[in-house]
Design brief:
This protein has nine helices and 14 strands. The chain has helices at residues 13-25, 39-44, 54-59, 75-84, 99-112, 126-135, 172-184, 274-286, 296-315; strands at residues 4-9, 29-35, 49-51, 65-68, 88-92, 116-119, 142-149, 189-197, 203-212, 215-222, 228-235, 238-242, 254-260, 263-269. Strands 8-9-10-7-11-12-13-14 form an eight-stranded mixed beta sheet, with helices on one face. A six-stranded parallel beta sheet has the order 3-2-1-4-5-6, with helices on both faces. Strand 13 and strand 14 (263-269) form a beta hairpin. Helix 5 packs antiparallel against helix 9 and helix 7 packs across helix 9 (296-315). The radius of gyration is 19 Å and the shape is globular. Residues 144-227 form the GFO/IDH/MocA-like oxidoreductase domain. InterPro entries: Gfo/Idh/MocA-like_OxRdtase_N (IPR000683), Gfo/Idh/MocA_domain (IPR050984), GFO_IDH_MocA-like_dom (IPR055170), NAD(P)-bd_dom_sf (IPR036291). Residues 4-116 form the Gfo/Idh/MocA-like oxidoreductase N-terminal domain. Belongs to the Gfo/Idh/MocA family.
Length: 316
């Protein structure tokens, strides 16, 4: 087998604009089946065939791996169903509503002998990989700021529904939390946290302070503040900055500002599609080839920290 035959559960915005096109572009992947309630929308992704049933995708003998882009509350049931069907799974972030769900999914992947990867696509971007490399080498105590904010979630969007895993923390806050943990490590302490709740009961803004033996981080995610994304790290004799957009640079050139001992350097990154890099890496993994993918241990660690941020914010 030289190509992974992908089946999609869902044909929403990310599947249509982000992941679907790059499966067509990738040499090691083919878009075999798309399942969606709206058959015309499924057909618009131009798969080999379109179906109106998710179960039909999971039952298909000509599907090796499944990409899941459903609302947050649908991740656990469909991920575990896909894994039980013997399909490898790439699932949109957040992988689960809570850390215990990530642990349940991980156990199911191990039990069925298949791969599970969280589709935190920005982690495949060369600029993000470069930041991870730099931070692994920086000595001294780090001061980190990460934020992802925008205003204007539509009233009928699942992000405003608490029963469907809505809220800023589980959406944009996951980007900011994961970035902070790249610097702090996998087991930071949540020093403090606060929610600003909206009329539906979801958090419209969440702030948190994280700490570890590597330093401290200020984390912000919001659905109501002006659009902005940033990631800065400072340490004695060192600083780096990812300018806006820090997390969703897509098909555009990007830069990374680095200061060492007072000398500034700007690294430039050519335009790239991190969705494609993610799909190609996940496909390589399925094919038994060497490829970096986001480890499930990191997905679990981020989920645990997000759970703790929610707990501390709820208690404050």
């Amino acid at each position: 087998m030289t190509q992974v035959r992908w089946g999609f559960l869902g044909a929403g915005f990310i599947a249509t604009r982000g992941v679907g096109p790059v499966v067509h572009q990738a040499e090691n992947a083919v878009l075999q089946v798309v399942g969606a309630r709206d058959l015309d929308r499924a057909r618009s992704l131009e798969p080999v065939r379109a179906v109106s049933s998710y179960d039909e995708v999971l039952a298909a003998d000509d599907v090796d791996a499944v990409y899941i882009s459903l609302p947050n509350d649908a991740h656990l049931p469909w991920v575990t169903a896909a894994l039980a069907a013997g399909k490898h799974v790439l699932c949109e972030k957040p992988l689960a509503l809570h850390a215990d769900e990530v642990a349940e999914m991980t156990a199911a992947a191990q039990r069925n002998g298949v791969h599970l990867v969280e589709a935190a696509w920005n982690r495949w971007h060369p600029r993000t990989r470069r930041v991870e490399e730099l931070l692994a080498e920086v000595p001294g105590e780090l001061d980190i700021r990460t934020w992802f904010t925008f205003a204007g979630v539509p009233d009928d969007n699942y992000r405003l529904d608490p029963s469907r895993g809505g809220g800023a923390l589980l959406d944009v806050g996951v980007y900011a939390t994961a970035a902070a943990m790249v610097a702090l490590g996998h087991e930071p302490t949540v020093v403090d946290a606060a929610h600003d709740l909206g009329p539906t009961g979801v958090d419209l803004t969440t702030t948190a302070t994280l700490a570890s033996d590597r330093g401290r981080a200020s984390v912000l995610g919001s659905f109501v503040r002006p659009e902005s994304q940033g990631w800065t790290v400072t340490a004695p004799g060192f600083a780096l900055e990812l300018p806006h957009p820090a997390f969703t640079s897509w098909r555009e050139p990007s830069t990374l500002r680095i200061v060492r001992d007072g000398v500034e350097q700007v690294e430039e990154f050519a335009e790239c599609d991190a969705y494609r890099l993610m799909v190609e890496a996940a496909s390589s993994l399925v094919l038994g080839e060497d490829a970096w993918v986001l480890p499930l241990s990191e997905s679990l660690a981020v989920a645990r920290t997000v759970d703790e941020i929610a707990r501390v914010a709820g208690a404050s």
